[in-house]
């Protein structure tokens, strides 16, 4: 440690996504290569001398206590903990929640240092990992509300790579195994015998950390919700969800210094007849065990919905990933003209 392969891998992974504006402190970290990156980890972040850095990933993150603010983070996985290196603007945005971000920066206000804060989740405190639909995000859960973080990778490859590395690191932990169930059959493992309802697919790792994956019912629930939003015009049997992807809606801010684009996180769902944008709660569901009441917001809230038949054209930008798509719809106040004409003409 560190091997040539590890140094090459974390150097390749150490790239801030192009569409994210990162602070000077995070840009400094993203500029480090190979051995300099390993040294930076051991000198500034690692809490124990003998821990090893195993994986690095840049991702947007959400905290359970501050569910409305998506922040950029450099996520570092070691043999002891998961570290979230955050922009100091995160702290300033939540100064009113002093119990969570209890920091005192008075001594460095006027210095030339670019400050970052680091949120640490010890692997020994890790209880479960919930993987989102189509591996677009995952939620890490610890012992309390302070220890719940969602990583919005928006990329199944990054999610898969992190989960694989996390499982490998957890295998090194010496924990007493949980007792084996008496009779292990499919129904007792994955279902509730009283209701006959299947639970989400759970994999209990040898370290006793649960890895929970969504099952087919979650897609069924989503299809039912989408059908509801379509005013029941669609037969649920024929409704297929063709695509589910975490994206950003681009809102141009006019009159600013450089007509900047504001990126708003949205969940895009495409069916055979409609295109939907939802505001999704990525952090509160499924409810953590200590939650006393359901969250204030539903998991999915419809932000916009258009019929594919009203789609006039799709404009594609020529920039590299992430690709920008502009959907141009030709709908007159969402009215179906033919239907109204027929009613007027043949009505009594």
From TrEMBL:
> Can you say where in the cell this protein is located?
Cytoplasm
InterPro entries per the record?
PH_domain-containing_M2 (IPR053015), PH_NISCH_C (IPR057714), PH_PLEKHM2 (IPR057288)
Gene Ontology molecular functions: kinesin binding
Name where it mostly resides: cytoplasm
- Annotated Gene Ontology cellular component terms: endosome membrane
Per the record's keyword annotation, is Ion transport included, yes or no?
Answer: no
Task: Please report the stretch or stretches of sequence annotated as the PLEKHM2 PH domain.
Answer: 114-178
This protein's UniProt keywords: Cytoplasm
Q: Which residues form the Nischarin C-terminal PH domain?
A: 241-347
GO annotation, biological process: Golgi organization; lysosome localization; regulation of protein localization
Q: How is this protein named in the record?
A: NISCH protein
Organism of provenance: Crypturellus soui
